[in-house]
Amino acid sequence: MKISIKLKSSIFLALLLFITVSLLSYLVLKGIERDQQKQYEEHLAQQTKIANIYVRQIYLMGSIKEPRAFLKEKGNQIASQLDLMSGMQVSIYDMSGREVGNSINIGTRTDVKDILVHGLNDKIAYQIVNDKLDYVAPIHDINGQIGVIKFEYSLRKNIEFYNNIKSLFFNIGTIVFALTFLGGYFYFNDLTKGILKLNKDASNIEKGFYDEILPLRRNDELGELSQGIYYMSNQIKNHIEGMEKEQEKLRLAVKKLKELEKQQKTFIGNITHEFKTPLTVINAYIDLLEMYSDDSNLLEDAKSNISKEAQRLYEMVEKILYLSSLEKYDFELQSEKINIKEILEEICNRMKGKAQKFNIDLLTNLQSAYILGDKESLMHIFINLIDNGIKYNESNGKVFVNSYKKDGNVFIEVIDTGMGIPVHAREKIFEPFYTVSRDRSKEYAGTGLGLSLVKELVEKQKGNISILDIKRKGTTISIVFPLFS
């Protein structure tokens, strides 16, 4: 999707202004909030000092010297007097946390248990509930702490002031944003006109319309760029004739490239001679049979090895051609809605005969699920994996084929109890021509292309294949396809 520079600049300007106004408002409001906090903390600290002085005077002037009895006797008097002095509701607590005095005997009282604990430990603490602040501080006599005083401070004026400033910033910010955006919009609009003119000039150069290019009359970088484009177009026009001469040189270069391409094809042809290795083995056995035609053991050995080499050659050629066709003809895949359970059951039924031949139990645990895929490719994928599970298994081993749905995907696992794949080989196992063991591959006529082709087919159908890390013996290959919706 193409977004014009005019729209981009408008969006950028709007975002820049919004962020600037918002950040400025946030910082100012935070500063006001911190200043208000500092003011009421200092005010309450001062009231606490006054309260301690007043309590100490009453204590020294009185006859009761036991702190608990003193607070019980004088608590309401102290609270009422401090209420008059501070203009705040005052409560007095003894060292057991029991309220022994309150300047207002009726009315709503907030729960101050959480902060009272700090006051009893000779610390200052406060909590804010709605528009009220409960402030607790220790009370001392000449010998130490004798109780706790609580001030109930109203934050209503602070909150009203804060909200008024916030509303003012919002209104002013909106006006500033609108006016600045309009001014910036007209400025950028004029700027983008020049850029669009330069874009049109570049398009005219591409089309060869050099006479339609005129420089912009601007005293800035765009004007300089426009002048440069104008002179460049004249230079291009003057050098067209020179470029025609270069065409002959280009023709000669193309001729040389074709010769290089021919050499490349010859090189590729030389590589195909690598496929003659199986044929060499076959010819060698034929020569031996002509020489020792009466040797029955040689005959059996030759039949077995010629069959293996022929099958190996056939699979190598067939799979290389198939890999090449996949890279060239993506559209040949015929996608359709497929029940993964049904196709796996069909494949497992086909493979039961081979499993029995190798004394392998083929077990399934399948869940019905639909995917969008190519049936022939899916057949090739799972036949190859199950065939590997059978061939590279141990006698009386097992091959498990499981499928289940999870998180919008269908998971298919092919598990065997065979010799397994070493950790160092798991990253390379899906590469063309890679085999874990050359002896094992020769034993079963393996070319190292099977899993490479499987991976190619899985990815063509938006799937993923991996070898799971398991602790037990054997190999677990997992394939994930998105569910059809």
From TrEMBL:
GO molecular function: phosphoprotein phosphatase activity; phosphorelay sensor kinase activity
Highest taxon in the source lineage: Bacteria
Cellular localisation: Membrane
UniProt-listed Enzyme Commission number(s): 2.7.13.3
Start and end residues of each HAMP domain: 189-241
Swiss-Prot/TrEMBL GO biological process terms: cellular response to phosphate starvation
Ranges for domain Histidine kinase: 270-485
GO cellular component: plasma membrane
Catalytic activity reported: ATP + protein L-histidine = ADP + protein N-phospho-L-histidine
Entry annotated with the keyword NAD: no
Transmembrane segments: 12-29, 168-188
Keywords carried by this UniProt record: Kinase, Membrane, Phosphoprotein, Transferase, Transmembrane, Transmembrane helix, Two-component regulatory system
Gene3D superfamilies, sorted: 1.10.287.130, 6.10.340.10, Histidine kinase-like ATPase, C-terminal domain
SUPFAM superfamilies for the chain: ATPase domain of HSP90 chaperone/DNA topoisomerase II/histidine kinase, HAMP domain-like, Homodimeric domain of signal transducing histidine kinase
Protein name (Swiss-Prot/TrEMBL): histidine kinase
Species per Swiss-Prot/TrEMBL record: Anaeromicrobium sediminis
Taxon lineage: Bacteria, Bacillati, Bacillota, Clostridia, Peptostreptococcales
